């Protein structure tokens, strides 16, 4: 089971950027259950459209210190 890490969710321009992982990792800190390579989900605040971020988009956010 997975869920959004609300504490890591950010706003960027007209999108909500939602980080997600397994419940076992987020709630219990079980590193063995942490997902690898899971890109955040971007949600348009205008249309509601959802899509996984590209690696380039994720790297851009990291370079800007947003997560």
Give an account of the 3D structure.
The protein is of the alpha+beta class. The protein has one domain. It is 22% helix and 30% strand. It contains 2 helices and 6 strands; from the N terminus they run E-E-E-E-H-E-E-H. It has helices at residues 23-28, 55-63; strands at 2-4, 10-12, 15-18, 20-22, 41-44, 50-52. The strands form 2 sheets. The chain has a 4-stranded antiparallel beta sheet with strand order 2-3-5-6, with no helix packed on it. A two-stranded antiparallel sheet has the order 1-4. A hairpin with a 5-residue loop joins strand 5 (41-44) and strand 6. The longest helix has 9 residues, at 55-63. The chain is globular and about 35 Å long. The model has no long low-confidence stretch (mean pLDDT 95).
Question: How many strands?
Answer: 6
Order of helices and strands: EEEEHEEH
SS content category: alpha+beta
> What is the count of DSSP helices, taking H or I runs of 4+ residues?
2
Radius of gyration: 12 Å
Work out the helicity level. 10-25%
User: What are the low-pLDDT stretches, counting only 5+ consecutive residues below 50?
Assistant: none
Q: Outline, from the CA principal axes?
A: globular
Query: How many domains comprise the coordinates?
Result: 1
The main β sheet shows up as: 4 strands, antiparallel
- Calculate the mean pLDDT score and round it: 95
